[in-house]
Amino acid sequence: MKASVIGASGYGGIELIRLLSNHPDFELHAVYSSSKDGVPVTEEYPHLAEICPLPLTKIDAEEIKSTSDVVFLAVPSGAAASLAPQLAGGHAKVVDLSGDLRLKETEDYKKWYKKEPADKAFVSDAVYGLTEWNRENVKTAKVLSNPGCYPTAALLGLAPAVKNKIIDVKNIIIDAKSGVSGAGRGLSPIVHFAEMNDNFRIYKVNEHQHIPEIEQQLTWWNDETAPITFSTHLLPVSRGIMATMYAPLAKEMTTDDVHALYTETYKNDPFVRVRPSKQFPGIKEVAGSNYCDISVDVDTRTNRLVIVSVIDNLVKGAAGQAIQNANIMFGFDETSGLKGFPMYP
Amino acid sequence: MKASVIGASGYGGIELIRLLSNHPDFELHAVYSSSKDGVPVTEEYPHLAEICPLPLTKIDAEEIKSTSDVVFLAVPSGAAASLAPQLAGGHAKVVDLSGDLRLKETEDYKKWYKKEPADKAFVSDAVYGLTEWNRENVKTAKVLSNPGCYPTAALLGLAPAVKNKIIDVKNIIIDAKSGVSGAGRGLSPIVHFAEMNDNFRIYKVNEHQHIPEIEQQLTWWNDETAPITFSTHLLPVSRGIMATMYAPLAKEMTTDDVHALYTETYKNDPFVRVRPSKQFPGIKEVAGSNYCDISVDVDTRTNRLVIVSVIDNLVKGAAGQAIQNANIMFGFDETSGLKGFPMYP
Amino acid sequence: MKASVIGASGYGGIELIRLLSNHPDFELHAVYSSSKDGVPVTEEYPHLAEICPLPLTKIDAEEIKSTSDVVFLAVPSGAAASLAPQLAGGHAKVVDLSGDLRLKETEDYKKWYKKEPADKAFVSDAVYGLTEWNRENVKTAKVLSNPGCYPTAALLGLAPAVKNKIIDVKNIIIDAKSGVSGAGRGLSPIVHFAEMNDNFRIYKVNEHQHIPEIEQQLTWWNDETAPITFSTHLLPVSRGIMATMYAPLAKEMTTDDVHALYTETYKNDPFVRVRPSKQFPGIKEVAGSNYCDISVDVDTRTNRLVIVSVIDNLVKGAAGQAIQNANIMFGFDETSGLKGFPMYP
Amino acid sequence: MKASVIGASGYGGIELIRLLSNHPDFELHAVYSSSKDGVPVTEEYPHLAEICPLPLTKIDAEEIKSTSDVVFLAVPSGAAASLAPQLAGGHAKVVDLSGDLRLKETEDYKKWYKKEPADKAFVSDAVYGLTEWNRENVKTAKVLSNPGCYPTAALLGLAPAVKNKIIDVKNIIIDAKSGVSGAGRGLSPIVHFAEMNDNFRIYKVNEHQHIPEIEQQLTWWNDETAPITFSTHLLPVSRGIMATMYAPLAKEMTTDDVHALYTETYKNDPFVRVRPSKQFPGIKEVAGSNYCDISVDVDTRTNRLVIVSVIDNLVKGAAGQAIQNANIMFGFDETSGLKGFPMYP
């Protein structure tokens, strides 16, 4: 199956190249960029020397949709709103990694992204690809909207608790921390090495565009969910997200009870690892892999549940989950091309 | 005034040496270590070559209390419980940086530190040196218990809100992140560079010994305070703490209202900087300095207040605040020896 | 083919596990450790949760040599000297990653490693596995001595120049820099995160045990080679080596001439990438992969050749090259199991 | 004495602000920037909140030269060539931190900097401020040219060997490594945190503009000096330079002999610390301070001398040495305002 990557000069794009190049069922067919027509991808990314001979090519939606079996759209939010509809409806299935097709209420998109939304009906038809919780719809998706990195970490951590109503969904607090690649390759003093090194920042306080995405999914699971508090921080690491989540228990449960629920919930999910009680994951323990590792702990003093969830933001938070979804869309094994181990240390 | 440092081979100890060596009012008189009798401090710390000729000397409480005007006790928790009483009661004033004299309920110490507590009456007399909130008692203290690094960041951030009852003190959540020096110089795979680099960990979930210290102070300010949820994470940086704190507002207030309250509260405190609305501090912006920088933001969607507080764990969180307290104990200017700027970048 | 790993709790060991677990031709059969009998490998390395169910098992040479087809020996230098001979001579082929079988002059081993050498005849029979330059002998090796990480980077960079006599082999200077994993998992203040972070150190000046290994190979290529100067530094990164090498040109050549020689030399080597003139590799551009990237530049002012060579010390400098050699020893494709891309960023 | 800083929005500029703000003899009078007229310096650098109330002001040479006693010019190379002459000749003494006044042969400037040089006579009159080796001329300087960061580290390390003719000055190789702040605050993918983190790069191979500066000084000391080989690398740290230097010995000397020579040479220099034999400095051991730490080692196998020299590129390599020179120009104690200890860890 021929796979193309649009937006190949960004971090999501090159991670797709890394994973697709060793995929047994997809063949990396072509890589596109809006701004670098004709430039070899190795000029932007010398680490691909001799292993990715493809040139970056100008985006031609008609040509792409007829020559590719699947298109991964890894352009910035805002660009996909118009591009995805052009790519859809033909031969190619579309997997969109931007935020443009995630919010069913397009007014929410306008408010949080401060950009023009995609066509509401088109967004409505796109399948939200939080794989572990939406496999049936993913199977038949023609246009798939891949979840954001933060929402992936947060939602996989919260899902068993919210769906099973063991926590008070009116009091969920998510304190999330991300590696710098999550901010993209754009340049600013914030990401200057000399200033981010040995530093740690909080940003977009109470304003992050992933808030409505998380709330939308939580509400689908439990419509009593109230607005969440969600904070985002920048870690001095290249990759990785940890979401530390807090909510009051709605039922009397021990750590072991909650742990058993989580273990049972994810027992057939190849990429979710529920850690033993009292063992908590570091982000490096999933680096480079498609795993989401989760720990839970009940604080008996406060009757609050603490949930910790880690992913690699570029893999399970972007390119890896996109391929996991594509695998399902094409009937391949869900883990195809994603069996790489975390790189440690 | 002659200042001595006990426990000079730890990170708190050498930071005291750095700050005391350029202090206009204290003279660094002697440095002590339980295990390194006769070893020049430069053997442990070559960065002190030619500028700290002192040898590490065996601890002799009688000699120390008679020859020093002030003793900074920077030994690990557990060791100060017996040592502090030996050093007290003589000529020297004692500033203890360990956790041994902080918890007035010595049963709490036993429970959280899992060690034998110091004598309850002795602990009772020790003055808790959260400088900005206890200056009057610090002035006359003979034995001062210096706050922990996490409690300093958390309490300075929470104080105006808790004292002025603008938040619901039954629902305080503190998500704290610390640089690796906070874990001390002891060796373990956790602090091995190859494994901590590019990593981020959560640890001691719901079990950190700073929990009762924070609760004790909050209760003094507002006795309705319920147990807090307090999480600690390890950042891949050498120094710095950020505490991100969440609580429901108890009154209707805007960000500007809360900001005004904080600004007013700390207007005369030379080491607390309340940042302008919508500007949030990174930990590097206080590195090497005694500043605590604080930002506040009201989330109108959830009616929760988010408070962000950053310090350098070795300065305002340890050696710097200890010297700030000693300045007050001796009638010096509170900022004496602490005017160094943050080192940036 | 059944592959076993001895010394599986070290960094070389777990990298072997990572690479062998996705190898199409080898099956990871068992993992051994001298000190952790019965401990699941996931207890030491939680990132292997659910993907490496093997327990660490006590080393039993007789059992191992009869049940494995190939044994990777990743124990510290000193331990392999006695263990390798016990493992050899049976069914299993042996690939030794320690330094114990590299120096044909066992007196040199004694001098530089300050340990007892292995039996001289045994060492003599071991094939030195600098793959690109010794494929014929590797093919038939029963006991293979895998090169050191620094020697791999240095020798691949120097080989074309030394063999073709374009540089003065009496004046070779190698300035090498390594990530911290190269120092192993042993604990010391040197590798404490708080002290290695934002730091850079030089160590073992003029005393590194890889010096005789490099000289031995250079002399095989050109017996006029004089003792080299070789310096080693520790970089604040987890992985990666750069060797920057200097030697006077022995012939009049331009950068383009030298570049052409290098390109021609390595044109059939899948894991050596000679970079275009004026493009120099960063260590991150090979991270996680088996590549060695090389650049050359002639300084016309001084008539010296500068050669830059980078590898991932745990892959091409250890586990990757070991597997590359094993592939050849068993007649598999040289790149089998090693097609993973560098992980960037 | 009133001190002004021009180019205050760069890293050299804010380091001057940090050091001048606590200087007992200079008062920070005003800060200037070519592009940020009226912007508070705290807007660019929030770490200066409440401690540097000055606004960045447009550069007006006439006003500056009449109101300041000393002007520190920290603008990029190229800008000082025209600005320095405008500032000179009036009341204010000028300390230029750019490279524009360093190369007495202005043709060399043109060749290496690829910019228009300053007036040759003006450059000729500027005193090269390698403090330890030019104090007499510094005393009377009206216009001082502060050395580059790499040259400072390299020259202080080489000086005793070159001046005393103990090394072959026709075969000097300098392998230098710098923290990222040395590249300035300008943005590029090279300094993007996600790509520089866990990375190490070599750059400007055989083309660095500090080459002629080093050669000029070495030739002044020994006119037989041949062109040097000088390589520059970028370390994933914010600050610090290490120069590792190699040259054949010209005389028979032991490490102890060379060590004695270095110790004797620098015995009266407060900022040069010659380390004990076999002890080598890490860059963190001088971070934040004006020290240059030096170690020497003779390799008896090759008869080469290895010299290691470390500085903080922003202090001894820029702002610190500039102030050290200004102290001498004004008759203050050489160490005035520079007594800060290294910040460790």
Can you describe what's shown?
Chains A, B, C, D: Its main location: cytoplasm. The structure is a homotetramer of 345-residue chains. By secondary structure, the first copy, chain A, is an alpha/beta fold. Chain A folds into two domains: 2-125, Rossmann fold (3-Layer(aba) Sandwich); 150-313, Dihydrodipicolinate Reductase, domain 2, CATH 3.30.360. Chain A has helices at residues 11-21, 41-44, 61-67, 80-87, 106-113, 120-125, 135-139, 149-163, 193-196, 210-221, 255-265, 315-329; strands spanning 2-6, 27-32, 56-57, 70-73, 93-96, 127-128, 143-145, 173-178, 201-203, 229-234, 241-248, 272-274, 292-299, 304-311. The first copy, chain A, has a seven-stranded parallel sheet with strand order 3-2-1-4-5-7-6, with helices on both faces. Chain A has a seven-stranded mixed sheet with strand order 9-10-8-11-14-13-12. In chain A, a hairpin with a 4-residue loop joins strand 13 and strand 14. The longest helix of chain A has 15 residues, at 149-163. At the A-B interface, strand 8, strand 9, strand 10, strand 11 and strand 13 of A face strand 8, strand 9, strand 10, strand 11 and strand 13 of B.
Tally of DSSP β-strands of chain A: 14
Tally of contiguous helical segments of chain A = 12
Strand content of chain A: 15-25%
Give the termini separation of chain A: 34 Å
Strand order within the widest beta sheet of chain A: 3-2-1-4-5-7-6
The CATH topology of the largest domain in chain A is Dihydrodipicolinate Reductase, domain 2
- Roughly what percent helix of chain A? 25-40%
Described by the principal axes of the CA atoms, the overall outline of chain A is: globular
